[in-house]
Amino acid sequence: MTTILRIAVQVFKECVRDRVFYNLVLFAVLLIGVSLLLGQMTAGQEVKIIKDLGLAATSVFGLFIAIFIGIGLVSKEVERRSIYSVLAKPVTRTQLVLGKYVGLQLTLAVNVAIMTIALYGVLAFYSWTTPALAKQAWEGPALDPAILKASYLILVELSVVTAIAVVFSTYSSALLSAVFTFGLAVAGQFSADLKNFESIVDSRALVWFLRGIYYVLPNLASFDVKLQVVHQLPVTASYLAWATMYAAVYVGALLIIAVVIFSKRDFK
Amino acid sequence: MTLLDRPAGRIALLFGALLLLATAAGLQAMRDARFQTDQPAREVLYVQSPAAVSRLALSYDALASDIYWIRAIQHFGRTRLNKDDASDDYTLLFPLLDLCTSLDPYFNIAYRFGAIFLSEPPPGGPGQPELAIRLLQKGLVARPTKWEYLQDIGFVHYWFRQDYKAAAEWFDRAAKVPNAPWWLKPLAAHTLASGGDRQSSRMLYRALAQSDENEFMKKDAQRRLRQLDALDQVDQLNRIVSTVKEKGAVAPFTWERFIRSHILRRVPTDPDGFPYRLDEQTGSVTVNPASSLNPLPTEPQRASGTPPA
Question: Is B159 exposed, middle or buried, given 0-12, 13-18 or 19+ CB atoms closer than 10 A?
Answer without folding.
Answer: buried
